[in-house]
């Protein structure tokens, strides 16, 4: 497993960060025990850091998987706004993960300088936690160009987790070229960058080599968070990254497994997905999108227009 340095002053980590959303209760692809097994398998292959978040509700799952792996690093995130909320989030993570010191903790899904201003008290608490040695590195995750630019200027920020893929899917406020410029600006300041949604929430999975190559050759990006929910997906992704041939049988298991349209519970019912669906398979009920599975052809058009990345083919 290739090792990379996360920014100018961050740790050395494996190029691949295990994105644990795919094994969490929030997505419901696998049972908790199955998720533990997949995560431990990835650790055995050399993956040495894990991305999670308070909203994923899988700290206990990760703690189980990490037995015997005390040196694996964990990134978590929260939507905390106040100092008190951040203290509670940090305490929750430390207790559930059984760690006195957290490796990384980020403000979740920051969109701009205005969003960060609204979370200023939480950020100040993160800075204090870093000074006290409760957290080693702090930062933000974002789907926005403005989020990357504003985050790069935050005092004490170490790492940014931006959305990045070759079609610019999921960027909520600008173009792909603008996101690349923002990432270059942040990395030029020494900030660590690890990308999310490199397969566009599954919509770019038909050409995984292209998707991975694009992000790997993007200047300033050191790591890649990959969501994986099976051993086959772990093997598949690591073979691709190693430049090795993927056996046909493994390709078929990963590329042709039964899939479904997943709609996250943070859907805001904006209706853009309904307009994009050529099959009329989506509707709004109780202010959220719902899918008629019999009508859905898994084309992915809905996910391409969702501003909050709520719809994914899984």
From TrEMBL:
Coiled coil regions, renumbered to chain: none
Keywords: Iron, Iron-sulfur, Metal-binding
GO MF, one annotated term: metal ion binding
CDD domains per the UniProt record, alphabetical: AKR_unchar (cd19100)
Domain (4Fe-4S ferredoxin-type) ranges: 258-287, 290-314
Pfam family, one: Fer4_10
Signal peptide segment: none
Name assigned to this protein: Putative oxidoreductase of aldo/keto reductase family
Species of origin: Desulfosporosinus youngiae DSM 17734
